[in-house]
Amino acid sequence: EALIWGADLHLVDGGRRLVCSERSASVLATVDLDADGHLGEVVAITDTETQPRGFTVAPDGRRREKISCRC
Most buried of the four, 3, 15, 29, 59, by CB within 10 Å? Predict the structure, then answer.
């Protein structure tokens, strides 16, 4: 499946992981980053509401709050 409609990106875990929203599949994906910032393994794909516009990450990195916009 091609994931082609990204909307929002956040660095978490001290910059060691990237969390991104993808609107065509309605998921949040978490990807490991290496020391140079290159993409590594996908560590989680979490279903979310339909076509998530964006999200915030709590300072502890554990909670992700979705922000939606049906424009």
Answer: 29
Distance (Å, whole) CA 25 – CA 71? 18
Neighbours of 21 (CB within 10 A): 25
Closest to 29 in 3D by CA, of 60, 39, 38:
39
pTM over cut 0.90: no
Q: Which of 60, 71, 22 is nearest to 44 (CA)?
A: 22
- Structure tokens that stand for 45 in this block: 């794909």
In three-state form (DSSP H/G/I as H, E/B as E, the rest C), the secondary structure along 8-54 is EEEEEHHHCEEEEEECCCCEEEEEEECCCCCEEEEEEEEECCCCCCE
- CA dist 70 and 40 (Å) reads 32
